[in-house]
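Hi support team,

I've been running sequence recovery on a batch of backbones for a student project. Most finish fine, but this one hangs at about 90% for roughly twenty minutes before it completes. I'm not sure whether the input is malformed or the queue is just slow. I've pasted the structure tokens below so you can try to reproduce it. Let me know if you need the job ID as well.

Thanks,
M.K.
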């Protein structure tokens, strides 16, 4: 390390350089990796120091700029890093911050470092892993400047390079990541930075983050993130595509003086069935949850159940709502700031501090209680939603039990209406779920019974518009289906027990048919999701027209196709329009819809749960048209001629 240029270094200088050298030898220990993720870590570390300065109440604005050479500039309008000589190191405090590992947290007047993972050692780590790094401090009407090169070697000590108005204060750090360390490259990802800055702005209300990014072509983008509403705005953003049940949020933001823990939570229900709950400690996403999430669940459970009993939504003899019932359709963000967080779990993504449980539970509990008392209308809606969720849960359990009576001997408990196939090999077996008894009859006669099973559903199986998911389990046809599939339902589904690797939904090509198909998909999505994810669900495509001239027969699946065949035959042709599957005889059904050689099946895959959730909440709404469109658009179909 010691070369001619720094031959004048003292022992303590050498210790300093050995420290930074250790970071260069094992960068992964400090920033996780030297991949793209590690590279971005450098930015997080510097920005975290500005966030801390803002949280301490001194900075209001943070500017981050990335230029096309990959030089990052972070500036804040805080107090400016201390520029005086540091008594232990004998060099300026700024230099000390950037050259002594573990320096950060030990300086300053005891204000704890909130942000980030490295607790103040970040600045020196970034310096160690940079080709060069410059700091400018605006303080006392002067601009102080220091530069480091080659992994943290002080190029020149702190000096004044200019003046500025006295009221201008703050810190600026510019650095270029060292390509010798980041061998995969030193290009930053616009979107990664964008999303993190937006998140930091949501998590730290009132802090303004101005982000500019210059891409390789020199094109510049600029965004300003500033959310004075904090987590309320975060939740509003997360619910932007949902139908929310209440405009006012449940919201708390409070410092617990005994523990010095700050708890901020925002929550809002939407009409979907999916819980969207995110938690953070000191601006770090705790993906594995932890004691703050436990406190959250305790508060939710205790307060809503008490309110429901006090206000006679639940009778004294009724079972309490379970936390899962209360989470249905809930979007929430929990963010705590803790002076001394302990993380555990696989990826250190779980908060372990046990005192947090109670602090969050108490603060949030009061907040929820206040909300319920002040918003009786919304309280009623929330409880009614929980009631439905709880009914659905109980119904699902009963259905599970009913279909699980004789798990060893599936054959004996198969539903009476099922015309099973003779094959017991799921990989070649198919089950047609057919709308209507007459179509069911044709399908039974027309099928190849070796590998094709048929389960007819009675006409309109439910008043679909009004059917709630819990009522679905009252339905005998649905129960038959679960039994026929053989793989169970809900949480303890065992996909290996699925008796058919093709589940084909066959309904009429009219509005009723679309409703039934929609209901089927909703049901499968909610209770047999792995069956959709596994690609086992298909929709049959029966033709709409038969165009015939003599012995020549064409089946048309659309009006356009029908017109084509009419043109082909020119004259003397007969057209039959199929109003429903029931109008086809067994042979026709085989020829058009069952025969693997000619039929068209659409495979239903749900590409991502979020999208699907949105689609399904829309599906359960009152509008018919979007539901029909959904069947065409949102279940992503691949045409397979198998
Ligand atoms: C662009 C990065 O690092 N800002 C920043 C850092 C510090 C201060 C202000 C600061 C903190 C304190 C007192 C204190 C730091 N100071 C230290 C140390 N922006 C950026 N802005 N005066 C100024 O914590 O008491 C470490 S970071 F160690 F000197 F206190």
């Amino acid at each position: 390390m010691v070369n001619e240029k720094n031959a004048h270094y003292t022992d303590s200088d050498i210790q300093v350089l050995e420290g930074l050298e250790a970071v260069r030898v094992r960068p992964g220990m400090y920033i996780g990796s030297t991949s793209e993720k590690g590279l971005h870590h450098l930015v997080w570390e510097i920005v975290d120091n500005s966030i801390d300065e803002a949280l301490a109440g001194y900075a209001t604005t943070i500017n981050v700029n990335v230029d096309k050479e990959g030089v990052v500039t972070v500036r804040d309008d805080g107090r400016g890093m201390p520029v005086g000589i540091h008594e232990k190191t004998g060099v300026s405090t700024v230099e000390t911050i950037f050259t002594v590992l573990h320096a950060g947290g030990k300086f300053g007047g005891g204000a704890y470092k909130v942000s980030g993972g490295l607790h103040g050692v970040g600045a020196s780590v970034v310096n160690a892993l940079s080709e060069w790094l410059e700091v400018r401090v605006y303080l006392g009407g002067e601009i102080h400047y220091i530069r480091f090169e080659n992994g943290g070697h002080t190029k020149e000590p702190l000096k004044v390079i200019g003046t500025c108005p006295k009221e201008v204060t703050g810190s600026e750090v510019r650095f270029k990541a060292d390509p010798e360390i980041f061998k995969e490259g030193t290009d930053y990802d616009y979107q990664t930075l964008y999303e993190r800055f937006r998140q930091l702005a949501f998590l730290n209300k009132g802090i303004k983050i101005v982000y500019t990014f210059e891409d390789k072509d020199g094109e510049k983008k600029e965004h300003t993130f500033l959310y004075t509403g904090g987590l309320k705005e975060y939740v509003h953003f997360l619910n932007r595509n949902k139908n929310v049940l209440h405009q006012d949020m449940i919201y708390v933001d409070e410092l617990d003086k005994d523990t010095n823990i700050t708890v901020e939570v925002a929550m809002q229900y939407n009409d979907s069935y999916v819980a969207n709950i995110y938690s953070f400690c000191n601006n770090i996403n705790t993906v594995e949850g932890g004691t703050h999430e436990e406190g959250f669940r305790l508060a939710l459970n205790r307060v809503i159940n008490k309110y429901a009993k006090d206000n006679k939504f639940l009778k004294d003899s009724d079972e309490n709502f379970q936390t899962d019932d209360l989470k249905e359709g809930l979007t929430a963000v929990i963010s705590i700031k803790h002076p001394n967080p302990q993380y555990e779990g696989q990826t250190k993504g779980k908060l372990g501090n046990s005192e947090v449980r109670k602090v969050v539970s108490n603060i949030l509990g009061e907040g929820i209680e206040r909300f319920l008392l002040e918003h009786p209308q919304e309280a009623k809606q929330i409880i009614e939603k929980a009631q439905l969720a709880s009914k659905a849960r109980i119904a699902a359990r009963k259905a599970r039990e009913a279909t699980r009576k004789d798990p060893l001997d599936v054959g004996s408990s198969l539903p009476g209406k099922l015309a099973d196939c003779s094959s017991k090999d799921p990989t070649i077996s198919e089950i047609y779920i057919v709308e209507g008894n007459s179509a069911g009859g044709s399908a039974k006669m027309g099928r190849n019974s070796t590998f094709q099973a048929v389960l007819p559903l009675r006409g309109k199986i439910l008043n679909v518009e009004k059917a709630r998911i819990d009522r679905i389990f009252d339905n005998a046809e649905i129960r038959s289906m679960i039994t026929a599939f053989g793989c169970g339902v809900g949480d303890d589904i065992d996909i290996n027990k699925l008796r058919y690797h093709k589940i084909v939904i066959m309904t009429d090509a009219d509005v009723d048919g679309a409703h039934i198909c929609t209901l089927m998909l909703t049901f499968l999505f909610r209770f047999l999701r792995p069956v959709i994810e596994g690609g086992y669900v298909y929709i049959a495509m029966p033709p709409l027209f038969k165009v015939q001239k003599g012995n020549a027969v064409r089946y048309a699946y659309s009006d356009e196709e029908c017109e084509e065949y009419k043109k082909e035959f020119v004259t003397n042709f007969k057209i039959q329009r199929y109003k429903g599957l029931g109008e086809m005889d067994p042979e026709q059904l085989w020829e058009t819809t069952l025969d693997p050689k000619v039929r068209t099946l659409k495979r239903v895959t749900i590409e991502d749960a979020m999208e699907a959730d949105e689609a399904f909440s829309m599906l359960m709404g009152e509008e018919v048209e979007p539901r029909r469109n959904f069947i065409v658009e949102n279940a992503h179909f691949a045409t397979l001629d198998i």
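--
Follow-up from support: It reproduced on our side and the slowdown came from queue contention, not your input. The domain at 231-399 is CATH 3.30.230.10 (Ribosomal Protein S5; domain 2). No action needed from you.
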